[in-house]
Amino acid sequence: MFALGNLERFGANRLRKARLQRIKLLLRVFSLVALIAAAKVAVHRFGWEVIQLNPLFTTLVASTVFLLGFLLNGVLADYKESEKLPAELATGLEVLSLEIKAISIQYPDSDGYFAATEITFFAETIVEWLLNRVSTSDLLKQYYPCHRAVVKAAILLKSDPPLKARLLGEMAAILKLVNRIETIRETSFVKLVYWLAYAAIGLLCGGLILMENTRLHEAIFFIVVISLMMIFLISLIG
Q1: Residue 171: predicted pLDDT
Q2: Coil, strand or helix at 51
Q3: For residue 90, which of 7, 183, 204, 217 is within the disulfide window of CB 3.0 to 4.6 Å?
C-alpha cells in the first residue's frame, strides 16, 4: 500500500500548502481593496471626482466580467483534471506493485520483488516531484531504471503474455500521466490576455474612484464589492 500511503502524505502536504496560499491570497486582496476604498475617500474629500456616471461605464464592467469569465473557464478545466491525476498515478503504481508481487505466487521459483523496490523508489520520487522538490528530468532518471526492472520482472512470466502486456502498459500509462501533469504545469494563457485583464480591472477601479457620487457610503459600498470580486478573480486565475 506504499502508493496510497504516499498519496495520503502528498494530500496532507498539499492541503497545508493550499491553506497558507489561501490566507496569503485573501490578505493581499483585502489589502488592495482597502487601499482602493481609502483612495476613494481621499478623492471625495478633495473634490477630485471628475467622471460622470454614463452607460459606457456599464459596458466597461460587462466587458471586464466577460474577460475574467473567459480566463476562469480555461483555468478551471485544467484544475479539474489536475485533481484526478495524483489519484490515477497512485492507482497505477499500486496495481503495478501488486501484479509484480503476484509473480512470486504464480512462479514460486521467481522473485520479482526487486522490481517492487524500484517502484517504491519511483513512487517516492513522484511525491517529491508533485511537491516541486524534484525536477522533471530527475523524475525521468528514476523512471528509466524502474521501467527496466519491470521489463526484467515481465521476462519472469514465461507463459503469461497478457500479464506482460499489462505490466508494460501500466508503465506507459504512468509516463503519460507524468507528461500530462508537466504539460498542465507549464501551459499558461497568452501573457497579453492577462495584461489586458489587469489593465481592464485597473481602469475599472480607477473609474470607480474618480466617479462623482454625492453619497460617500454608497460609493464605498459599490467600489468595495466590485473591486473585491474583480481583484479576487484575477488573483485566483493568476
Answers
A1: 93
A2: strand
A3: 7
Report the predicted TM-score, pTM, of the whole model to 2 decimal places.
Answer: 0.66
Angstrom distance (rounded) from CA 116 to CA 194 = 46
The domain ranges of the chain are 2-13+48-213
Listed in sequence order, the residues at least 6 apart from 68 whose beta carbon sits closer than 8 Å to its beta carbon are 197, 230, 233, 234, 237
In the chain, helix, strand, coil percent, each to 5? 85, 0, 15
* Number of helices followed by number of strands (H, E) in the chain: 7, 0
Query: How confident is the model over 102-160, as pLDDT tens digits?
Result: 887 777 777 778 888 899 899 989 988 988 889 999 999 999 999 999 998 888 877 67
